[in-house]
Amino acid sequence: MNLPWMAYRTFERKKDDPVFFSITKKIMEKLKLIKIPTERASFCHKEVDDSLTLLMKEPLVSDSVSCKKGCAYCCHTQVSVTEDETQLLIEKGIHHLVKKENIQLLKLQKNAANSGEKWLQLPYGLRKCLFLGDDNSCQIYMHRPLVCRTNLVIGNPNQCSTIDGSEKPLRSLNTFKADMITMGAFLHSKENGAMPYMLYKVLNGTNKTIAQRRENLLQP
Ligand code: SF4
User: Fold this and answer.
1) Taking the model in full, what pTM does it have?
2) d(CA 62, CA 200)
3) Which of 32-46, 99-113, 116-130 has the highest mean predicted lDDT (pLDDT)?
4) In ligand 1, which atom is closest to the CA atom of 129?
5) What does the buried/exposed string (b/e) look like for 104-134 if buried means 16 or more CB atoms within 10 Å of the residue's CB?
């Protein structure tokens, strides 16, 4: 199981606190009742958004976050996704995935996915998320993964840059509730992993609809 490290770190700190553990548990229970994968993903996205909206109501908190549209350093790092999020990304982002340049990028990235070292060895431009537009904005913003929603940095955004192939120590906002929700989604999911790996795996799956998409996607 490939868990997002910031959410996992919070979970390890908070899992013995019944108030926090109940957040993860409730999410897992609710996910069992939702039968459609894309709906499960959207449910978790809304839960995280609601918790972050509440957090951002405090001006001291919102003023300290330096993330803004067009700053896309984190969109060149590895993003972990659940199975449900993978389905949602394919459903909402298939028109980006079928672009010839993105098919080539997907093949290249999936070989380096799930290894931080191999990932950072890729040239910076080849680490770009498949859904990042030419204007450095997310093309599937409404449906972006949980990890993209909770990754909020405090301080100088240049610290987020991995252009030189190394990751720097970062100060990020404590998003405890959102992290516990995220862990509920990941613990419920049978398989998780780096986005290019998960996308490639599903697009190569045996499901008929997905197989048809694969035909389109993976033709030389
Ligand atoms: S899904 Fe959107 S926000 Fe997340 S890494 Fe990709 S471009 Fe960035």
Assistant:
1) 0.91
2) 36
3) 32-46
4) 6
5) ebbeebbebbbeeeebbebeeeebbbbbbee
Q: Is 191 helix (H, G, I), strand (E, B) or coil?
A: coil
Going by alpha carbons, the residue nearest to atom 4 of ligand 1 is 148
Residue with tokens 């100088």: 156
Pocket perturbation via mutation, ligand 1, pick of 76, 90, 109, 129 by most ligand atoms within 8 A of CB: 129
Burial class (CB in 10 A: 0-12, 13-18, 19+), 29: exposed
Question: Tens of pLDDT along 14-66?
Answer: 999 999 999 999 999 999 999 999 999 999 999 999 999 999 999 999 999 99
Q: What spacing in Å lies between the alpha carbon of 138 and ligand 1's midpoint?
A: 5
Q: List, chain by chain if needed, residues with CB within 6 Å of any ligand 1 atom.
A: 75, 79, 129, 131-132, 138, 140, 144-145, 148
pLDDT of res. 163: 93
Buried b or exposed e, range 144-167, using 16+ CB within 10 angstroms: bbbbbbbbbbbeeeeebbbeeeee
Closest-CA residue, ligand 1 atom 1, reads: 144
**54-80, pLDDT tens digit by residue?**
999 999 999 999 999 999 999 999 999
